[in-house]
């Protein structure tokens, strides 16, 4: 453990985080004073203050706190023999035990909340003692016995229960000390003992359970517990452990082998390989901001040192993934199947940003406040701050919105392309739309399923994409109802075999594969369950792309998952079911008006039929939807069916949205417009059995069984008008230069831009440009005429394999002179042109750019 400790301190020192913790431990008097301040801050965060709660903006929040407490008290009054709350069965379901502790917390909260409708509950000693008696009752019957506990989900025992218990004790600390002075130490000892994945009742930074958002939750609990005990060493240790979540992950020099956390390119990963900004990343942000608030003025940490890091998370990690107040689906993991919407996700983020702005200073504070206003002004739905955790945050939010001196402003340009290559995600934004792409690889999971959530996830990381259109209520386009009504084999962008797969509960009769006797030890929380059931990775190395200014390129080789590979190798049990994937090599080229998609080698080596979905869009059943187009022979097209189309336009007059599809080199497509009704429970077992009806539009290319591999080339044109689509008929700006499994490339004459993805070793020459690329790479080149001053050529390159040391690009013709370049780029004249060498060693998919001048 001492070596691990030294490594931890070394990592924090390298990240510049050690100054956050005072160099000398606090004195006994300072610990007492700091602990009291920390507990008072905690009460203020969750219950508000007399000043905040006197504001009318907090009325709805205070009413909700009061209602929850009175409802829970009524259930306590109605409890029968052996019950704490009427109807809540305890002893076998850890979620019910979590509910019991949560209800006690909600009652305690009302007794510490000044103002509002809880005047008779506020500081009501009798009610507080009922809560304390409830804690004792639960401890004696269902929590204190370590031999009977820890059934079901580990999360509840190590994190969830401790959150409710610690906050309840913090709220009632004075009364607990007077009424049950031994209860705090009793509970803390048990909470320590339930850290089964820890070491000696403390955090284990080498445990896969104690990372990222989970680690932030555990350490925040321990900070509260340290304040309750007046234990400065415990607080200091918990803060030191929590600081590790602020360290940017270096995939080439991992600390404790942990890949969970924030990366230099803005990516966030949890569960070792899941792209998770919109769920666990959101939880981490909330927790660390809350921790900064409860530490304020305590002397235990210099929290201001951490604000710039958290600000960078918001700017580079979260903001690109939020479109008009909606959190994008590509970073939500299994949470895409929940009934909470992307707007709800962003409301949680907004509260964190509001509080972060109060901790920031100067331009950073102004930028964060402006972003809060920007999210509110661009969202088609009204953000309800009553859902915030803290009444104080509600007041801060109201003050920001009411401050005329704060202009609404995004944290990034309106036109932007972002390659989150560390988590195999791509986001492309323009005024009027955003395009979000989910990829996968040997590094990143194809999907996440767990606990009966996201039951049919199989192709969500196989190039599935989402085209968000400005001004639309995204609950009508995406969210849980998209996954409920759109076939999992027909998600936009997906190439899938024609077959019926079974969900995990269908296959095994429970939410996981249970086989603890196998050498791989398949239990509900085992590493094998994660690897093969919950979030399997792909087996392809090639997944990544380059960014040049506001333009982007991405490429991926579609693969089987690790379960299929390892079942074939004889590593998995005979009754473990695996599925073979279809084959395709794909590229996405991200421009201004178009997203160009190329696919080659599309098919199935097992001889099955395959479908490739160009797009899948949903609408309310009564929306006015129209579909028109033009066939390649010039005849008009309207409605549905199979046609050899040149272009197609889908329009929703009710939502005032439209998407165009230009088929550059694509076989006949099947166009469908179906009315689909399904229960939301088909995607998540705990969803309400609510029937959802949607109009589902699909554009699909069918590949017959046993057919030779084929290719596709098409462009998505967001917000397309019919006249604009007609301009692609003759000598349009888009040209496909290559579309094979070795090289895919396009050019846009209007932009002077050529983009290419090469997938195989050896030399690749891009036709029409004579640009040569050595080996697998992603390359974007743009040429701009500068009058008599000649021309500027800008080239950006990325290594999508993450394993190359150098990528070389040759630009034939007269030698070009270097103007500017990123570190790691070498330019030299060579026979017949200009050679560019990009040092991609340990760059992890980062783009390198160089600007060259050519004389006239």
UniProtKB/TrEMBL annotation:
GO molecular function ontology, one term from the record: lyase activity
Statement: the UniProt record of this protein carries the keyword tRNA-binding: no
UniProt domain Polysaccharide lyase 8 N-terminal alpha-helical: residue ranges: 58-373
Keywords, comma-separated and alphabetical: Lyase, Signal
Pfam family name, one: Lyase_8_N
UniProt similarity note: Belongs to the polysaccharide lyase 8 family.
This protein's name: Polysaccharide lyase family 8 super-sandwich domain-containing protein
């Amino acid at each position: 453990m001492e070596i691990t400790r030294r490594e931890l301190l070394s990592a924090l020192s390298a990240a510049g985080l050690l100054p956050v913790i005072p160099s000398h431990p606090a004195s006994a008097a300072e610990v007492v004073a700091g602990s009291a301040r920390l507990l008072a801050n905690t009460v203020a965060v969750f219950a508000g203050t007399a000043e905040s709660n006197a504001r009318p903006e907090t009325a709805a929040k205070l009413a909700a706190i009061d209602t929850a407490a009175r409802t829970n008290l009524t259930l306590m009054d109605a409890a029968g023999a052996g019950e704490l709350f009427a109807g809540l069965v305890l002893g076998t379901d850890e979620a019910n035990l979590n509910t019991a502790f949560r209800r006690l917390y909600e009652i305690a909260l009302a007794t510490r909340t000044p103002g509002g409708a809880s005047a008779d509950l506020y500081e009501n000693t009798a009610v507080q003692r009922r809560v304390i008696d409830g804690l004792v009752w639960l401890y004696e019957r269902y929590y204190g016995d370590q031999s009977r506990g820890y059934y079901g989900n580990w999360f509840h025992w190590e994190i969830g229960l401790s959150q409710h218990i610690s906050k309840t004790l913090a709220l009632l600390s004075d009364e607990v000390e007077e009424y049950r002075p031994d209860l705090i130490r009793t509970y803390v000892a048990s909470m320590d003992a339930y850290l089964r994945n820890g070491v000696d009742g403390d955090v284990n930074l080498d445990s896969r359970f104690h990372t990222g958002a989970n680690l932030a939750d555990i350490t925040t609990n321990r900070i509260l517990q340290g304040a309750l005990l007046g234990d400065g060493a415990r607080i200091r240790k918990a803060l030191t452990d929590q600081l590790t979540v602020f360290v940017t992950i270096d995939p080439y020099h991992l600390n404790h082998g942990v890949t969970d956390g924030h990366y230099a390119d803005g990516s966030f990963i949890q569960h070792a390989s899941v792209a998770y900004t919109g769920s666990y990343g959101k939880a981490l942000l909330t927790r660390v901001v809350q921790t900064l608030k409860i530490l304020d003025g305590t002397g235990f940490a210099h929290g201001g040192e951490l604000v710039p890091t958290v600000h960078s998370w918001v700017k580079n990690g979260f903001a690109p993934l939020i479109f008009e107040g909606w959190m994008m689906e590509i970073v939500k993991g299994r949470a895409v199947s929940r009934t909470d919407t992307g707007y709800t996700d962003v409301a949680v983020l907004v509260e964190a940003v509001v509080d972060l702005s109060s901790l920031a200073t100067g331009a950073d504070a102004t930028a964060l406040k402006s972003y809060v206003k920007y999210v509110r002004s661009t969202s088609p739905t009204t953000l309800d701050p009553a859902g915030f955790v803290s009444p104080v945050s509600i007041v801060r939010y109201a003050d920001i919105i009411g401050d005329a001196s704060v202009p609404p402003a995004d944290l990034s340009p309106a036109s932007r392309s972002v390659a989150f290559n560390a988590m195999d995600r791509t986001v492309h934004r323009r005024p009027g739309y955003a395009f979000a792409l989910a990829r996968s690889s040997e590094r990143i999971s194809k999907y996440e399923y767990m606990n009966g959530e996201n039951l049919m996830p199989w192709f969500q990381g196989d190039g599935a994409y989402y085209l968000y259109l400005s001004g639309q209520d995204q609950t009508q386009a995406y969210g849980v109802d998209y996954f409920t009504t759109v076939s999992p084999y027909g998600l936009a962008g997906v190439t899938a075999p024609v077959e019926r797969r079974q969900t995990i509960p269908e296959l095994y009769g429970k939410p996981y594969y249970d086989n603890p006797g196998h050498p791989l030890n398949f239990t509900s929380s085992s590493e094998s369950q994660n690897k093969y059931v919950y979030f399997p990775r792909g087996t392809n190395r090639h997944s990544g792309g380059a960014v040049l200014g506001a333009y982007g390129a991405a490429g991926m080789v579609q693969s089987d998952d690790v379960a299929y590979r390892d079942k074939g190798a004889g590593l998995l049990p005979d009754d473990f079911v695996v599925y073979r994937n279809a084959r395709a090599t794909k590229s996405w080229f991200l421009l201004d008006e178009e997203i160009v998609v190329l696919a080659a080698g599309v098919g199935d080596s097992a001889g099955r039929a395959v479908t490739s979905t160009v797009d899948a869009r949903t609408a309310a059943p009564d929306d006015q939807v129209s579909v028109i187009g033009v066939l390649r022979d010039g005849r008009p097209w309207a409605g549905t069916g199979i046609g050899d189309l040149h272009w197609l336009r889908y329009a929703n007059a009710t939502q005032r949205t439209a998407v165009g599809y230009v088929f550059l080199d694509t076989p006949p497509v099947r166009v469908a417009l179906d009315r689909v009704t399904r229960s939301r429970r088909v995607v998540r077992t705990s969803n309400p059995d609510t029937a959802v009806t949607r109009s589902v539009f699909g554009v699909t290319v069918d590949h017959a069984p046993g057919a030779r591999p084929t290719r596709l080339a098409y462009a998505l044109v967001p917000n397309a008008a019919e006249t604009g689509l007609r301009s692609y008929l003759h000598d349009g700006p888009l040209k496909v230069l290559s579309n094979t499994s070795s090289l895919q490339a396009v050019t846009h004459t209007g932009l002077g831009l050529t983009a290419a993805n090469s997938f195989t070793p050896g030399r690749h020459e891009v036709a029409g440009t004579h640009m040569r690329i050595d080996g697998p790479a992603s390359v974007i080149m743009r040429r701009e005429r500068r009058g008599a001053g000649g021309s500027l050529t800008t080239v950006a390159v990325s290594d999508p394999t993450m394993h190359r040391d150098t990528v070389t690009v040759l630009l034939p013709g007269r030698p070009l002179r270097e103007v500017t370049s990123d570190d790691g780029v070498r330019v030299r004249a060579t026979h017949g042109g200009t050679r560019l060498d990009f040092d991609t060693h340990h760059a992890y998919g980062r783009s390198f750019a160089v600007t060259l001048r050519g004389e006239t």
